[in-house]
Amino acid sequence: LLELMENGSGCLNGSGAADSAEKAQQQQQCPAVQLSERNCEAVRVIGQYLRELGLARSAEALVLEAGCPLESGAAAQFRSSVLLGDWDGAEASLASLRRALWRESSWSEIAFRLAEQRYLELLESGAHIAALCVLRGKLTPLQFSPDRLHRLSGLIMCSGPEELRQLSGWSGAAGGTRQALLDSVEQFFPPSVMLPPKRLSVLLDQAVRAQVSRCRHHNTSLSPDQLTLLADHSCQAAASVPSVCSQVLDAHQDEVHVCQFSPNGRFLATGGRDCVAIVWLVEAAANPPGAPRVRHHLTLRIGEERGGVAWLAWSPDSRLLLACAAEEATEVIVWEAETGDCIKKLKHRDEDSLTTAAWLPDSNHFVVGGNRGHFYLCSVDVGFEKAWDFIRVVALATRREDDGGTAVLAADTFARIRRYRFDTMQDETLFREDGPVMSMSISQDETLLAVCVASAGVHLWDLRLRVCRRRLHGLTHGAYLLHASIGGPNQDFVASGSHDARVCVWHRGCQAGDGAQQHLLPDKLSGHGGLVSCVSWNPRHHGMLASASDDCTVRIWLPASLAAAALAASADGTGPGGAGFSSNGCCSSTVSKHQPPPLL
Amino acid sequence: KSPEFNASYSMGRLHIEHMGGERVFSCANCDCPLTNRQQLISTRFTGATGRAFLFNRVVNLDTSELQDRVMLTGRHMVRDVSCRKCKTKLGWVYEFATEESQQYKEGKIILERALINESEGFPDPVKD
After folding, report:
1. From the CA of B9, how many Å to the nearest CA of chain A?
2. Domain B23-119 class?
3. Per residue in A248-300, pLDDT tens?
4. Is B18 on the interface with A (CB under 8 A)?
5. Best CA proximity match to A265, nearest among A288, A239, A294, A289
């Protein structure tokens, strides 16, 4: 740069004294490389960025060497005039730029802003007469925005620069307002004349945002402008997504069909064909903090002739556990989870089939139903309360509504998801699925519904907008019931069982590179020896996932970072089984009772 | 009353569909719902156990491999169907009919009358 200065080629874009013609001549002599149009654009954008950072000399050197002027000559003239306060010169440059405007109608606005800046600066410096001349001679003839004109003429009464700045909200000639004026004018001209303000910053921001949208396990609270530019952004799966099996629970004697964490995250309930429901305690190890482990608490029997436990539901206060049977499901049982006391055995009629249930928010009322057409509202205090006739219920969930009441969401055998109000006896179809519904699960904040559709995957519905937000594919279909669960701190993760003995985990927030929603593939966790029917996220320890399988075990999955700590702390027999992502589960206690029959 | 089924074949809980209808047909052995009267096309068929019905659509069935069978009405390609829950053989499904006059049967299912029960259901919901 010093060399250039000595040569006397004062091609400083910012110096208003430089002659345009001389500058152009210098630039024609300087370029060392021939640049394509795209590269020239890149140089212009980089030059603007450097100039905005305050590195004006670097910007000049860049322009000189590349031979790409940042903007047209007249625009450069205009810019330097404004920055120096040469208003007449600015007006002259502006006149020559007039042809280049996007829209002719914006001319008066630009001229007004220019004159307004001049007027305010004159007022600030105390030249009231000159200011008045500008007001009469420049601002008024434009006939642009009488309101602003009126306000500006009012400012002439200000006693001093302080008051002027305060009243007008204008921060003064030294307060960066000249640059602000340039920024606001830039939008009226095409980029070939004047670059849009902060162009490189905008491009970099767009790139980072695109990376964030592709991040498969995105769960950071950092905003895009805090992320590094040096490498493509991608959240570490190890910290948030469960990938390692930290515990294998083998207390069940037969296939396990259901697993549910309680809403407070302290209990896990599991049940299956051996007709028992087991309650486990979740303990977060103290040292190191945050590595949760599960320990056996109670075994509760539902009776041998029942065909096994079909469904388990926790009351919202996490105090009570309700169990439905699979065959001969005439009775539902409610226990108190802490003590194991049987609080209620509810039976209404001998021909009932009640295979699914959901609690209402008061932890006293619950709804039960089955596909033979029984759909009842019951309570722990009173027992059977109301029936809704002729609905063959497949799955149930409840949701609080705006008026304080609770809506019961029921999927039926006609693949409709409907909303029932037992207090007002109103019902309504929310949406209809295009295939038979196997099960349904609502997110903890009650905004999303995960519907497992036979041979179609998991469909995520938004309950406020009543649209299907995502269709999640990748799980293996078959003849048996699968359950899904929504979890994660922002309801970002969906997990489900699968017929290929693996647990599927999706991060629903990310989009494939081209924004297509359909091709969201899950992470698959291996380790089980049989069909995985049910999964459940722990609502409090967000990375903790439980899965129930036909291999008679329940597995606990943790993110890799937590799991390492949990493995180190394990002392009892329920030691860790196999690994997660990459197959191999050499689990000592896995029992695979019989070979699965060929699934047709 | 308790259903008899072969426990060694059950893995997981089977997904059992239900077609609804005011008159429901189900498996005589295990009471698994199969179809309804609206799906009935004809009662004038004969199976191994005697009378058989032709239905348009039936759920909860497992199908066998394709078989070449010559029947009174001509040569057909059929698959045997059995109850998904208890594996009892219930009839067959026509996949291909060689004679043009028999092609109306393709895709339809024969269930033998002796192997199914008919029972009361309730009216289907109005289409909304």
Report:
1. 6
2. mainly beta
3. 999 999 999 999 999 999 999 999 999 999 999 998 866 656 678 899 999 99
4. yes
5. A294
